[in-house]
Amino acid sequence: MINWLKVKLQYILPKHALSRLVGALAAGEHGQLTTTIIKAFIKQFNVDMSEAKHEAPEHYASFNAFFTRELKDGLRPFSDDINELGHAVDGRVSQLGPIEGDTIFQAKGHDYSLTTLLGGDATLAAPFKGGDFATIYLSPRDYHRIHMPVAGKLTDMVYVPGELFSVNPLTAQNVPGLFARNERVVAIFDTKIGKMAIVLVGATIVASIETIWAGNVTPPAGKHVTHWQYTDASGDSITLQKGEEMGLFKLGSTIVACFEPDKIDFGSLKANDVTRLGQPFATIKTNH
Asked: Could you read off the pLDDT of 107-151 as tens digits, one per residue?
């Protein structure tokens, strides 16, 4: 009954207004109050500050600065193996597996459209049909910067307006089409294994989604899908190496990674497995 209520309340709450309010508070520098909130958060979610570049809660002037904290240098190295992809985030596998035509599995009884996830552009979605996906959930205690699983050249970024449901496992099991309903930012790269899409999915009280090339993409929230293209001719060519940071969340959330058919093998990785940045994510199939 309590779980049912938690889900139903999300349909009623003014999620965007609440999220922007929390975002404004999280960005504020409130001295001792900020430090007290950070300490309470660390205790509540058992955050391992020994991994942080700056361990002391007092170091962080705002809650956002704490939440987007960097790790100690060299703590999550990526393998030099050219046939291996590294995990893009610290988190936990929500689901992974084949993309069945245009359909991605969300949870028992729920799936959603690949094309809708990527913003409704069938041309952008086409390379990934029949390919592979992995959905990774970042809990409040996790490191919230996203890094490149493999080197890639940015070709497209799409902002997709939407809801701001929670993306925790309970909501994923109960809200149809969750990841294709929530506000999100899609980044598409050309890589040595073809196209790769990394989708940064917003959630309740996720105050911001940023990329390293565009800064804050949201907020402010838009009302329409917005598509940016990056080409050599425009002078906006952006190439990121394996392991380089590509974006971050200020509170929240989830990423969905999509790959072309017959390019990668997830091996023994499965739903509910813990992921650690840089650790083996997938191997490149030998025919590529």
From this structure: 877 899 999 999 999 999 999 999 999 999 998 899 999 999 999
pTM of the model: 0.88
Q: Is the sign of the CA dihedral 113, 117, 120, 126 positive or negative?
A: negative
The answer to whether the beta carbons of residues 73 and 47 sit under 8 Å apart is no
CA neighbor of 84 nearest in space, from 153, 145, 149: 149
CB-CB neighbours of 195 under 10 Å:
20
Tokens in use for 236?
A: 């906006």
What lies within 8 Å, CB to CB, of 67 at 6+ separation is 26, 144, 250, 251
CA-closest candidate to residue 206, choices 216, 196, 193: 216
Query: Three-state DSSP class for 273?
Result: coil
Classify 260 in phi/psi space as left (phi over 0), alpha (psi -120 to 50) or beta: beta
Burial readout 126-151 (b: 16 or more C-beta within 10 A, e: otherwise) = ebbbebbbbbbbbeeebbbbbbbbbb
Catalytic residue positions, numbered: 90, 147, 253
**Separation between Cα atoms, residue 212 and residue 248, nearest integer Å:** 8
Residues 223-274 pLDDT 10s: 889 999 987 665 667 999 999 999 998 776 899 999 999 999 999 999 999 9
Q: What does the block give as tokens for 62?
A: 């705002």
Rounded Cα distance, 59 and 202, in Å: 27
In Å, how far are 25, 70, 125, 247, 258 from 264, measured between CA atoms? 42, 29, 18, 23, 10
pLDDT tens, residue by residue, 149-172: 999 999 999 999 887 666 666 666
User: Cis bond leading into 220, ω under 30°?
Assistant: yes
Residue with the larger pLDDT of the pair 189 and 231 = 189
